[in-house]
Design a protein that fits this description.
Helix content is 13%, strand content 32%. By secondary structure, it is mostly beta strands. A hairpin with a 2-residue loop joins strand 14 and strand 15. It is elongated and about 80 Å long.
């Protein structure tokens, strides 16, 4: 059994980068024209394609227990097809272990599937080369792999299971394919650098946490709500009044609530962060944002929840993550005036 790989695809266009707080300056190129993604499945190859639901299956793990792939729903998944005799696959497995460990904290599950080998061979190899939390499964007949093979990806293959050997997919929590890479010998990178870059975009690191204390306010009264934004060490977010128009400002906002008015946020003084020969306005560490809460005099007494959102872009000294947001709730108890001290 031999493995063929896709021919090199000229990269005559590339994606515009996203600078610190900036936005793409041109439309994104097709996936297969982007650096490191030359082996991406194209529409003319047929299904399954990115944007489509991944085929469902159930396969045994190293202990022989059947694992339904549907059990990964609710998590992002990296799915990789392999074989112990495949030299490309063998050079990747340690890097795939590292990817699995690095993204597990973001609830990304990594699944490796061995194709068309006897169980003893795979079990012996996997016990030495596959480490937790990666999930190792066995497709002895190749029937599952063949369901993932786009029919016109490699028309020379008689055995469709071979078409996805060394292929890698990223699936979203609903089981939809978001990236599908077939092997590409001209741009082969066993470190999964391009896959990691896509995961960084699709499942950004949670570098910002938000909390706010419950509030008890009498009808007709006011109170200050302190929203605490915790920025992870090594990161900063842009200030509410950023240093350039293309930077993404940090914003704390609440959704409308009957008989409750939340005033404009009051932000602390910005910190100065050096970028080359200039300084930009940022927030770092623990950031406290104050908002005025006014409860209408006719507001009904009882418990409610205020729904808030923090919009931001997190950066380090060398890179910026994609703009993101964190939602949070503030429990609000509206009391009669005499019940509030």
């Amino acid at each position: 059994m031999k493995i063929q790989v896709l021919a090199a695809i000229p990269l005559w266009a590339c994606c515009a980068g996203v600078a610190c707080g900036g936005a793409p300056t041109q439309a994104a190129a097709p996936t297969w024209q982007r650096p490191g993604l030359g082996g991406a499945v194209r529409p003319e190859m047929g299904s399954p394609q990115p944007g489509e639901q991944a085929p469902d299956f159930a396969l045994p793990d190293l202990d022989g227990r059947m694992v339904p792939f549907a059990s990964t729903r609710g998590s992002w998944v990296v799915l990789h097809f392999t074989a112990t005799w495949c030299p490309f696959c063998d050079s990747e497995v340690n890097h795939l272990n590292a990817l699995s460990a690095a993204f597990a904290a973001r609830s990304v599950k990594t699944v490796i599937v061995d194709v068309e080998e006897d169980a003893a061979t795979w079990r012996s190899y996997a016990s030495q080369h596959v480490t937790p939390p990666m999930i190792a499964l066995h497709d002895a007949s190749g029937a599952v792999a063949s369901r993932f093979a786009p029919p016109r990806a490699q028309p020379s293959f008689d055995d469709r299971a071979q078409a996805v050997l060394d292929a890698t997919l990223i699936l979203d929590p609903h089981g939809t394919i978001r990236l599908f890479l077939l092997p590409d010998s001209a741009h082969f990178d066993p470190t999964f650098r391009a896959v990691r870059a896509e995961l960084e975009k699709l499942v950004p690191q949670a570098v910002v946490a938000v909390r706010a204390a419950p509030q008890a306010v009498a009808a007709g009264a006011s109170a200050d709500v302190a929203v605490i934004v915790e920025v992870a060490p090594g990161y900063h977010v842009m200030a509410d009044r950023p240093s350039a128009p293309n930077y993404v400002p940090t914003r704390v906002e609440f959704s409308a609530e009957p008989d409750v008015t939340v005033g404009n946020a009051r932000y602390p003084a910005a910190s100065s962060f050096r970028v080359g020969d200039r300084a930009i306005a940022t927030f770092e560490g623990t950031v406290q944002v104050q908002l005025r809460l006014d409860v209408g005099k006719d507001a009904a007494v009882g418990d409610r929840r205020l729904h808030g959102v923090v919009r931001y872009q997190a950066c380090t000294a060398s890179l910026c993550l994609f703009p993101s947001q964190r939602t949070f709730d503030v429990p609000l108890e509206i009391k009669e005036a005499k019940d509030v001290p």
